[in-house]
Amino acid sequence: MVELDVKITSGDLYDFLLRHSYNSVSGLLGAVIGALGVVVGISRQYWIYLILGVVILLYLPWTLFIKSKQQVANNPVFREPLHYVLDENGITISQGDSSTCQAWEDCLKAVSTGRSIIVYTAKNNATIFPKSQMQDKTTDVIEMISTHMPPAKVKIRS
Questions:
Q1: What fold does the segment set 2-8+76-155 form as a domain?
Q2: Count of CB atoms within 10 A of residue 87's CB?
């Protein structure tokens, strides 16, 4: 069993939103179209393509940055630390008087970024474990996830 308390910051949420968005078809398509606009704009000296390409490339990260700031400021879940318990049954998340448990078999996938370990509990929802707040429990968390989820669902780099 691994227990830890985590306070999700706007930076942690931004990291999750970036990873989630750029691993979707629309995020990748936007990045490719923006990059093509920049390349065509520079190579053919069509400055409008260059400007549009830069705007397209910067739009998603900027809006996700603003969205993460707003969500952390406006959502009461992010005001207090979340208490996580990872055990044989799954991931239990509690805060104040409320508690919920996500069974391991219901977790869709586990991934990592340079900043976090992310366990998807639904297509657009996830449990975020910021590495900066896990300290010496990072290895234990990764081991618990890897032990209880099928290897095909776990894409965590140490």
A1: PH-domain like (2.30.29)
A2: 14
pTM of the model: 0.85
Per-residue pLDDT tens digits of the chain, which is 158 residues long: 999 999 999 999 999 999 999 988 888 898 999 999 999 999 988 889 899 999 999 999 999 999 999 999 999 889 899 999 999 999 999 998 899 999 999 999 999 998 999 999 988 889 999 999 988 899 999 999 999 999 999 999 86
Across the chain, which distance is largest between two alpha carbons, in Å?
Answer: 61
**Does residue 75 sit in helix, strand or coil?**
coil
DSSP state of 68: H
What residues does each domain of the chain span? 2-8+76-155, 13-74
With the C-alpha atoms ordered 152, 154, 27, 57, is the resulting torsion angle positive or negative?
Answer: negative
How far is it, in rounded angstroms, from Cα 90 to Cα 80?
A: 22
Token look-up 């069974």 returns 103
